[in-house]
Amino acid sequence: MNPRRELTAAVLLCAVAGGLALSAGGQSWAAVTVTRPAPLPPVDTALTGSALAPLVPAAGLLLLAAAVALFAVRSWGRVVVGVLVVAAGVALGTAAVRTLTGTLTVDPADLGSQIGLDRAEVVVDPSVGWPVLALLAGVLGVLGGLLVVLRGRGWPGLGQRYQRTGAETGRAAPRAPRRPETAEDRHQAAWKALDGGTDPTVDDAER
Q1: What class, spelled out in words, does domain 3-158 have in CATH?
Q2: What are phi and psi of 28, to 5 degrees?
Q3: What confidence score (pLDDT) does residue 188 get?
Q4: Which H or E run contains 121?
Q5: What would the pLDDT profile of 34-58 be if each residue is shown by its tens digit?
């Protein structure tokens, strides 16, 4: 594949993954039922992805920043960005899988300051759609990061095109060949010399 197309593909993967992560992180990932000691009634609430897994929005922001950084850095700098993108993708995938499998735990103290929450029993019912979207974002992030790590060192930079253009415009244009002097040119030069107070015959005599 052409290096410029590879760069474009990596940027799109990072940008799409970041956008999906931020979108999924702001949605409800789980319905939570809190059973408090009698006679207190149970409490029902919903937790967003950012509340269950704070790394989700952070990873989304990192992926969007990486999409921009890929244009600004070169060589080993791109490799570092690629490693960070892979890490963000893995974090997204891990958070999504833990939510889908029910292994994420919720501390009652994190649900608020209502009476009896510290002695409550918490039941988490995870949803499927938004965590799966975060998992997809993680997969795209890992793919984009691996592409950057493996191929990014040879991609063109943002300034190379402008540097090449500037170097070409900075070259001096070749001078046009001077045409031979004609009798008309000498006649006009003589009149200009007379207008300026100079006797053109003196120059001719010296020659």
Answers
A1: mainly alpha
A2: -75, 125
A3: 73
A4: strand 121-126
A5: 777 777 777 777 888 888 888 999 9
- Residue 36 CA to residue 12 CA, distance in Å, equals 47
pLDDT for residue 123 is more than 80 = no
Angstrom distance (rounded) from CA 116 to CA 35? 9
Residue-level length of the chain: 207
Q: What is the CA radius of gyration of the chain?
A: 36
108's CB contacts (< 8 A; 6+ apart) are 34, 117, 118, 119, 120, 122
Q: What is the mean pLDDT of residues 127-155?
A: 93
Domain boundaries of the chain, sorted by first residue: 3-158
Selection from 16, 32, 24, 31 nearest residue 95 by Cα: 24
CA–CA distances in Å: residue 166 to residues 22, 72, 128, 169, 174:
40, 18, 54, 5, 17
Residue with tokens 């200009």: 192
Helices 3-25 and 75-101 pack at an angle, to 10 degrees, of 30
Residue among 141, 121, 119 nearest 60 (CA) = 141
Classify strands 28-35 and 121-126 as parallel, antiparallel or unpaired: antiparallel
Q: How confident is the model at residue 20 (pLDDT cuts 50, 70, 90)?
A: very high
Taking residues 112-124, report their average pLDDT. Answer: 64
Give the pLDDT of residue 162: 42
Model confidence at 103, pLDDT cuts 50, 70, 90, reads: confident
